[in-house]
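ZP: hey, is the protoporphyrin IX containing FE complex queued? I don't see it on the tracker
AM: it wasn't, my bad. submitting now with these inputs:
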Amino acid sequence: MADIVESREVSALLRELTTAAGREDPYGHYMRLREIGAVVRADDGTLIVTRFAECAAVARDHKLGKMPVELLAHAGLADWAEHPALYGYFTSLLGINPPDHTRLRRLVSSSFTARRVQALRPATERMVDDLIDAMGDSCDFVPAFAFPLPCNVISELLGIPPEDRAQFQHLVSDWSAVLDDITPEVLSKANPAAKAVREYLAALATERRRRPREDLMSALVGHEEAGDRLTEDELLTMAGLLFAAGFETTTNLLSNGLVALLGHPEQLPDMIGDPASAVQELLRYDSPVQNIDRTALEPTTIAGVHFEPGDRIVAYTGSANRDPRRFTDPDRLDLRRPDNASLSFGGGMHYCLGAPMARLEAELAFPRLFERMPGLHLRDGARRRESLTIRGFDVLPVGS
Ligand code: HEM
């Protein structure tokens, strides 16, 4: 059996990662953690993996799963079901294990298809152009572009009318704060927001049952497969999840990607030449989601380390993406990198359901931004998000 490394250096590195400096640039700390060992233990007992092979194994191992409901009490969340913000998360795909996960994922996958995503292309192109039109000479890129684009695209997908979208953006933002950190303060805003989102989606579902359209909500309410269908509760949780999981992450892909591109202007022609490969590399280089967590459901072994049921494991996928064991010269942005499949969308059964949609948005947005705003540049005053899990910016001033 291999050793789990516990040391003062590990504790110090993990602590530093949560400081403003660590969040600004976690990659040096990740490098040191990867060198120290395949599996390290944090002060609170959590086991942490930072190398590519081990992170991929954590994502794919079926004996690891989402924290079962009975363990939530140990995490101080015994009353989770009474908080609308937590209920919507822990009962969604992101919070459950097979067989429930398998069933729900099958029901949504057959409606949220690649064809449906591709059908959003013309509307997404229009939204990109409209947002660029409104950007002016200088603005904060986050509220002007990176935030509304994904929100509008998911709204379009689900069938939320344009006039309701702005209000919806803010509600979902307050709600999805629980994906970062669950504190009483976060919950005091997240709970009413989650409740309002659910009520709105319930009214939309009722409307689409009466008069179906071409949107995903109509597909979900009408969908039946092998005699099975989503219950009303599952439907509302699923529709809410598409927002919660989908739009801040994509917002941060757009912001992190813009910063990376503006830092490497010599590579802009490669972005315009092959946006799909470029976006893949931007996702690897500075991922909007830096880690995923699992709990051992059965005994299992990863990197020669034995995991017992109940062990909590965090895989630092943001570090895996910079592992020299997997990528040549990993700290270099190379939009033409040939073998750049990363762990930014996770892996295994929870692999991101919205990956094709996030990719489509970024592939359309970046070439158009640089084509229409050749003088686009960063201005002073950028502020990072206060989170290590969701990496991105709260404020990102730009000029053109
Ligand atoms: C760049 C943007 C995005 C990133 C980096 C991202 C990342 C991720 C990651 C890492 C996971 C796996 C979590 C885990 O294993 O615990 C995940 C799951 C998920 N994502 Fe995304 N995501 C993005 C955009 C989206 C979009 C646009 C949508 C929906 C419209 C979406 C919907 C989901 C859903 C529903 C899941 C749960 C899948 C499951 O558990 O079976 N994501 N995402």
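AM: back. The mean pLDDT is 93.
ZP: great, adding it to the tracker
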